[in-house]
User: What shape does this take?
Amino acid sequence: MKKIIVVLLCITLMLSLTACSSGGSDQQGEKTKIVVAGKNFTEQYLMAEIMGQLLKDKTEHDVVIKQGGYQTSIILNQGMMDGEIHAFVDYTGTGYINVLKNELKPDDTPDTVYQKTKQGYEEKFGITWLEPLGFNNTFALIMKEEKAKELNVETYSDLVEHSSDLVIGMDNVFYERHDGYKGLVDTYGFKFKDIKEMDIALAFQALSEGQIDVLVAYATDGRIPAINAKTLVDDKVFFPPYYAAPLVPVELLESHPEIGEVLNLLAGRIDDQKMSELNAKVDVENRNIAEVAREFLISEGLIND
Assistant: This one.
């Protein structure tokens, strides 16, 4: 009986030592699965590819790039808290106002918005913001160049007196956002003749063909110059700064700090113009998203050809 007990104790000890040596995916230095995701538009597809390809090249982790399926920041945040995804790019103004429900203050700057958003996410969600990528993808009201010139419109305030004769287009997400259409109207007093909610790709076509007069677009969309559109000036500064940065779970960085170190190699490398050019390669030139992302990484010397 004593021999049996000793044998069982030895077996238990061996299993315990094996478990300790093999570890789990949450232990520092161990290989783990990293799901990189994004929202359902070109820029987000590109950023997921750029981050995913960089992590594949610079780490030994099992990196999965998951395109599509997440429409809003709130859904992405929940997916990260549920452990379904581990990295995505979001925008400071979206996190600050639309997720954390803060109000933009007169003394707020891009840096204060970033710092407050980072702190709020860490406290509320256990998610941290890495270093900003460099571009500010704010919302923008755009018009065809000739139409804006005809009406002598340069700013949002200039647009107000003409709005009752004009049709505005936007996607349904902007219409429903806390920092979206209602707040914009309250700030400027727009009274558009009609509002058309539509897919953003169809909206650009509608603007180009004159079916709508004004479009709520993303400022870094490569189709803006492609259709000879003019970006109006938000002269009352309704929109907050929307600087892009990678988000990751705090716990993941604690166990795998190299993930943050690798993603921070992208910090400051993509300005507004560069992001617009990358978007245009996909939306205007119909290039493959993964290829465009790889070309960017090679051009920046972040991966080898």
Summary: Strands lie at 33-36, 62-65, 88-91, 127-129, 139-144, 167-170, 194-197, 214-218, 229-231, 244-249.
